[in-house]
Amino acid sequence: MFFASDNWAGAHPAINERLLKESTRFAAAYGTSELDLAIEQRFNEIFEREVSVFFVATGTAANSLALASLAKPGGVTFAHSEAHVIEDECGAPDFFSGMRMSPVDGPHGKMDPRHLVSRIARYPQDAVHHGRATAVTMTQATETGTIYTLDEIEEIARISHEHGLPLHMDGARFANALVNLGATPAEMTWKRGVDVLSFGGTKNGCWCAEAIVFFDPAMAKELPFIRKRSAQLFSKSRFIAAQFEAYLQDDLWLDLARHANAMADRLRAGLNGSNTARLAWETRSNEVFAVLPKATAKAAGEKGAKFYDWLEPKDMAEPVSEQDVLIRLVTSFATTPDDVDAFLRLVAAG
Amino acid sequence: MFFASDNWAGAHPAINERLLKESTRFAAAYGTSELDLAIEQRFNEIFEREVSVFFVATGTAANSLALASLAKPGGVTFAHSEAHVIEDECGAPDFFSGMRMSPVDGPHGKMDPRHLVSRIARYPQDAVHHGRATAVTMTQATETGTIYTLDEIEEIARISHEHGLPLHMDGARFANALVNLGATPAEMTWKRGVDVLSFGGTKNGCWCAEAIVFFDPAMAKELPFIRKRSAQLFSKSRFIAAQFEAYLQDDLWLDLARHANAMADRLRAGLNGSNTARLAWETRSNEVFAVLPKATAKAAGEKGAKFYDWLEPKDMAEPVSEQDVLIRLVTSFATTPDDVDAFLRLVAAG
Amino acid sequence: MFFASDNWAGAHPAINERLLKESTRFAAAYGTSELDLAIEQRFNEIFEREVSVFFVATGTAANSLALASLAKPGGVTFAHSEAHVIEDECGAPDFFSGMRMSPVDGPHGKMDPRHLVSRIARYPQDAVHHGRATAVTMTQATETGTIYTLDEIEEIARISHEHGLPLHMDGARFANALVNLGATPAEMTWKRGVDVLSFGGTKNGCWCAEAIVFFDPAMAKELPFIRKRSAQLFSKSRFIAAQFEAYLQDDLWLDLARHANAMADRLRAGLNGSNTARLAWETRSNEVFAVLPKATAKAAGEKGAKFYDWLEPKDMAEPVSEQDVLIRLVTSFATTPDDVDAFLRLVAAG
Amino acid sequence: MFFASDNWAGAHPAINERLLKESTRFAAAYGTSELDLAIEQRFNEIFEREVSVFFVATGTAANSLALASLAKPGGVTFAHSEAHVIEDECGAPDFFSGMRMSPVDGPHGKMDPRHLVSRIARYPQDAVHHGRATAVTMTQATETGTIYTLDEIEEIARISHEHGLPLHMDGARFANALVNLGATPAEMTWKRGVDVLSFGGTKNGCWCAEAIVFFDPAMAKELPFIRKRSAQLFSKSRFIAAQFEAYLQDDLWLDLARHANAMADRLRAGLNGSNTARLAWETRSNEVFAVLPKATAKAAGEKGAKFYDWLEPKDMAEPVSEQDVLIRLVTSFATTPDDVDAFLRLVAAG
What we know:
Four copies of one chain form a homotetramer. Chain A has helices spanning about 15-25, 35-45, 60-70, 85, 90-95, 115-120, 150-160, 175-180, 225-230, 240-250, 250-270, 295-300, 335-350, and strands at about 50-55, 75-80, 100-105, 130-140, 165-170, 195-200, 210-215, 280, 285-295, 310, 325-330. In chain A, the strands form two sheets. Chain A has a seven-stranded mixed β-sheet with strand order 1-7-6-5-4-2-3, with helices on both faces. A four-stranded antiparallel β-sheet of chain A has the order 8-9-11-10. By secondary structure, chain A is an alpha/beta fold. Chain A has 13 helices and eleven strands. Chains in contact: A-B, A-C, A-D, B-C, B-D, C-D. The interface of A and C includes residues 87, 94 and 129 of A. Chains A, B, C, D: Keywords: Lyase, Pyridoxal phosphate.
């Protein structure tokens, strides 16, 4: 019953197998091997256009270096107020990019377009005192389990581009959003206006596979130097490439995300039918937020269920009562129906 | 015949096996799992004292974050003029630490203590215009295949500490130096005055395992924040821990280094007995520098031998002639005697 | 009728006279002259204890370097959401300190202590993902013309220190607040818990005189290097010292601030008695915020009155109507009663 | 007998007078007043083309921000090994630009073009590990009193541009070089290939007047934000403008530099004719380096002469003996013939 986070899961056997095969060979270092180049080509196919791809060690690195590549002195980047870049990266995006992250409100992890417009208006291009609007970053799927529709992405992109701002997408759970929307990678990104993507594999079955994807290679020209100076260029880079090869092979990545989402559906259905618990808000990805009695949560924890308490957001329709607690449950490629059912039984037991 | 670098090798089977085992489990993320903690304990044993250990993604990260933890505003760090931190890390140590790297000369990759003293003297502690001496970093084994003796380490440490400067050791090839000296990890580090160590596993059989080791845990208190802000905290950190577990088990790491050094010895012996080639200077680790006719090098390359041409250092006893070329050959845990012999035959063929 | 800002004023004759005298002498550079040292001593007297004083070029520099001296990696500084460090310094405090500025709400420029507590709680000292609470900065007088009482300062300081956070005060308009409260410099700072002060002279009659004042010299030990590395060490530093000498002589600085405040009082009284305009909210320093018909504001502007339109804050008791506009009026040491009366006549004219 | 540095001098009466006049007026802040704009126009005339001008607080700021405007990630800037940006600015150029300063050798403060070429060659444009050559900076007049000829400037510029590198000139003593060469400002800069200039007025009679001058305004487009974020935008900027107005009026700046140089000539002549002292090397600006008996130097110091001991450079034709000492003497606009003669008498006294 490991629902603490999808990064508590291990690695998928197909990915392990590919790593094993890679381990017995010699090959060129620092991302110049044939395998590295082949995987870059594979990203072109996945995204249906020529892209520039850069492997890095962590999702925080992907976000931070992507934003660094868009940075200007005095720049301000707009992100949802609960975004990972604001709340969970210890200031790394600010450190690497030299920009400030400016919070944009909106219900359940999604930026409200009107609020985005009003925030951007505070930082006009000649505002030497305020600083200037420079980039927008959105998270798909969001930190709170919701998913932007394709039209919503396009709306954020339209606003960004109208103000001359490139749009970055934090795709730590890219696949979970993609399979939910039934869209292609191209449709969920550049076809709707996304300029740069943090493409995460770690949470979805790799053990360490994160990439920055530029849809306009011209925007990527500083990234090789930014990456090296940021200590993010792996010498044995091909072991990242190998993970991505297996991950992208025969739609494995989509299958893994579908499985994680299905496990979350099973949780959602079970909690919806529960007498003791309720869903805190509607989610669609592999994250589920539930309100349940503190005693129930405590008992479940004591019986081995792993999950985190969550800070109550400002916009809860029905606030969390004194007796209750808000928790986050995350499923992964490795979650089993038995895990889910065991947890639901604990909840039902009250 | 892969002699380009030890980071062209793959990963050792024992390490793969341990990774496979790890991949089927769930465990806490971000370095808080039982395995992470167990490996930290293992480092205590290896170094015979309580140390603080931090895993990072690359050797550049280990060096840069170690120096960042020692940094002061206006600080200057002293390193050999051919050190990795100066020549091969794209300014990452400067970027993360905010310090300048000041070059110290010395024959074949080892700092001349007298020159170190005179460089430090240029940056007194109240020298607000020059900047102030703040740290010293040495590389063991060096970039040019040589190895500081224990007494030489102690001499560098003595000078550093006399001036109030902590001493960092870049141990990307720590094991290769260790087995050559026949010393214990403690003897080659804190017992001789080293304060912080970049402990590299990647070049010696892991696929990605680098650690920063503080011999005084009090010096490490900022590192958790420095690491996270630097985007170097792995979510599935335990996969680094797993590599280190296998690496340190039953002296595997020392055996792998002994093998690499032995292969270099075989190369050295062969080249010493050669009519066409000569050793450029004496080395003791798994790096060999040879001078051979350009035509011979070219022919060897065409027959599949991989190596890099090397920039002639200022202090070559016998300069490289017009007809000749200076090359670097690096052996690894995966180099075979057959590889070495095949290469030597190509050289002998002229 | 120059009410755009107090930094539109020139310099006071007594300050000019002192500068003239200084200009004919030779003296040691970079803050080491006898005059520099004498002025440092003068600050000790003004603040009734041994302080450490550092001259810098701008108020933004004073704030940024003060915060840089308090910084930790991953650090977060709390400031009112409308504070100069957040809104008007182009990210300089973030750039120099490496910290993020976290906004705290509160009516009319003053941090609400309860909101400060809840913001600090978001960043506990071991929160490697969020970042950690590191410093608090408050503005006295505030950006919106209000003034913290001594008890309010003490309350902010108490909260800060309870959480181990040093308290910085942005005193760009320090003197204006001081004379309004009738307090001594010591009473408005360290006696109530302020640790570091940006002491501004430029807006109150100097042409360029800003200082960072540390009430605990031990906290200042990195500042000489921070300042030099930040390009803020004047070679002819004694010309700053000379301005401060005249400024602090015979309470000139207090007289100038009293005058500016009195001119603001005259404005406030006039606007309060006006049929056409009203005070937007109550202020006590040399800043006045007024709501008046757009046509009236336009006409006044056309007749030479200088002032800025102001963004309507969220917490206006009586919102600004469509026909009206919110403006800011700032008086200075150089404002005359005639200026004020001329402006009031324009307003009365409608 | 103040020969310690030209920044020990005060300010010229004409500049004071202009400041006095400015102090009685109100005017727009932050560099937007009519006077600020008029002085920008004046720089166009002085340099015979449209330039972009930015006032900053210190020469270190001028150099650092100029280089920041040329910076690229992983960038390397080449400067003479004794340049102010390397030796005397506490790492500020590195801090603001994020680039490393790479030392180029050459006799007496002037970069040897061949050595510059070989240094640039170490950092090719695709050298992600080394870092990449990004800018060149030269000092005119140099730190050691010498002056690049126009042809020498052109040669440095040619090499820079051949490698795609913009050329910055540190003109802290611009005027002293200019009058020595008998060139126009245009001839000593953009007509010979200089792209950006630190134009110093402080050492030559202002009390604080430093400017960055871009000869191609397109290169300056980030500077307004860089300057504000660097805390270098003066609120009462027009007091810098006022100094420059007087400084540039009726060739005052050239007259002041001619005077300083003439005083240095007088020193040089006197020392050349001395039995006790000798010139350490030939200089042409307002700096003189002399070798004299330690006892003589000590005696002169005790009688009130101010000067600094100097570190013996590697390339002294005739080394400094044990009995002797190398000193630096700097003249300024305020040095009198009597000062010089008094000093020479002390030297003659032995």
